[in-house]
């Protein structure tokens, strides 16, 4: 079949070619010479063009990379070949623009007895998918999707505008609020298995949600403030829709919530630094638009890490104090809570720590819970972590819960930034 | 609400105004700072974020570095994901458009250097904390130092066209001095070409290649993974078999393990400096190689 087609084609084309040749008009010597001259002109023009291109090519590497005269001794291979490449890059090259993708598994096991706020015996509490990339010359985007056992939640998803004049850094999207210090930490970067009790009691915890804290959709603007030498000051202002856990509830559009944070930081020595923060939050609560909840917070973190032995030794002490003022139908509930925590790195792979919790309850400040934890952490590598936390909690109901929490964290994909 | 917004708006004042027309260069490491200083002379002010005795993989993203970055005209980075754990959040948060990736004030030195150990096959973290773009410790070859210096000179000339001739002159002088110094270093290291060594981390491929040393194994079983007893037994056996008498260790690793390996193999542990500022007297790029070459020569002499 193919053979027949080829013969048919050649039969069809052959006379055409013959015909084309035979139709070229006979040329006079003058005309031929004129054509030669024209061709000569074109060759000259092309030669000139080639010369220019070559000159540009020899300059280009000097401008972009290893200059010619440097490459005397061991000549480096040039970053890019100076000749053109036949064909473009393969399809996979387009994937270079894909965001950096990482997944962190957070597996938690619990033993012991807790009737007030029980955790399941074994659960993959959260699988956090991070997608991060530069959007354009003016912004970058970060998405953190928290996949729990019952569904998926955008834990954070925001764009950060990095090229705004005046030193302002605006963020738009859904994010963890800049209230206090640990509220903005993701679960996997906390120095404990759980979040402190004060976050649960005063910052919108609920029994159906493992990941407590203030997080909402909105706009955040931060700016480094002018300050005397050696002191770092940063202010952050945030405007949110007004829905965050059991803390804020927007019944109408104007029920927005706000969070403000002022951070002061100083390097006391090369190895030691101190961070102090003050926070304020205000929003409408679940009783309705005219019921306001306000939060005031103070936080302090003292860190020590000797630079020459940073991967073997470090110490951190943190505390956060939160005051809540919640409008109820007839009264205003004023509650207070705090935690204090210590962490010490024993070696390249081992960390120990402890935490003390004490907090009243936002809806009934006559009730308070308290607790203490001892934490031991083991790092097989930078990408996995095994942690045990012995936790004793004394609930306002009069019950005491002794529990052992076990956590296995594992990370695949892109190398994320270390939290500070 | 007003209070909150006010807090973010305190004092709008012009940032980054260049002090007396000088280009403010911030380098992620001391080596790049030293190279920028060689080229920039008195037309630049140079600071670095990491210290020379610090593991550049594990620098902390301290807010005080934001103050440095906020005022920078030019940020010089090592690249190849060396700073991936700490620099990106600092750059994002510093509020300085000039030094964002892709902006004219963002200078990735790895684009100018000869890079070794670029993986050609699939990489996975089973290999440890691998750098998929190639080994980022490339500044430990003086020729790469020169290439980076020339790149920085070009960048500075673009930023400060009036000083182009000055920067060109300084690069020329740097090139002359490095060529002379290289002759000296080569001469010193010549008798030891082909020597087999063990190093703690994969920080030295460029240095070893430059001076013809043969890195046979590492104290770390895999990049970023602490040594295991099984690996150490293997390492000790290999060192005895191959008669390897020198272990190079970076100043930020604990010496306990290398010392015990050395005790069992009769080798010596040498704390070689990967960076300018690793010791007080190592104040510039030339002194870094002077220091390391002297240490290496002494170690090889003793191992004879």
Description:
The complex is a heterodimer of chains A (420) and B (304). Chain A has 420 residues and is an alpha+beta fold. Chain A has a single domain, classed as Porin (Beta Barrel), CATH 2.40.160.10. In chain A, 15% of the residues lie in helices and 47% in strands. Chain A is built from three helices and 16 strands. Chain A has a 16-stranded antiparallel barrel. In chain A, strand 13 and strand 14 form a beta hairpin. The longest helix of chain A has 36 residues. By secondary structure, chain B is an alpha/beta fold. Chain B has two domains: 163 residues, 3-Layer(aba) Sandwich (Rossmann fold); 113 residues, Nitrogenase molybdenum iron protein domain (Rossmann fold, 3-Layer(aba) Sandwich). Chain B contains ten helices and eight strands. In chain B, helix 5 packs antiparallel against helix 6 and helix 6 packs parallel to helix 10. The longest helix of chain B has 26 residues. Chain B is globular and about 60 Å long. The termini of chain B are far apart. At the A-B interface, strand 6, strand 7, strand 8 and strand 9 of A face helix 1, helix 3, helix 4 and helix 5 of B.
Overview features:
heterodimer; A: 420 residues; alpha+beta; Porin; 16-stranded antiparallel β-barrel; 3 helices; 16 strands; 15% helix; disordered N terminus; B: 304 residues; alpha/beta; Rossmann fold; 2 domains; four-stranded parallel β-sheet; 10 helices; 41% helix
CATH homologous superfamily placement of chain A: Porin
**Contiguous uncertain segments of 5+ residues of chain A:** 1-26, 59-81
**Within the CATH hierarchy, at the fold level, what is the topology of chain A?**
Porin
Q: Indicate how many domains the architecture of chain B comprises.
A: 2
Q: What's the number of extended β-strand segments of chain A?
A: 16
> In terms of structural class, how would the helical and strand content of chain B be classed?
alpha/beta
Helical segment count of chain B: 10
Shape of chain A: elongated
Strand content of chain A: over 45%
The rounded distance between the terminal residues' Cα atoms of chain A is 73 Å
What would you give as the CATH superfamily of the largest domain in chain B? Nitrogenase molybdenum iron protein domain
What is the C-level CATH assignment of chain A? Mainly Beta
Low-confidence stretches of chain B: 1-17
Q: And the CATH topology of the largest domain in chain B?
A: Rossmann fold
- Head-to-tail CA distance between termini of chain B: 74 Å
Q: Which second-level CATH architecture of the largest domain in chain B applies? A: 3-Layer(aba) Sandwich
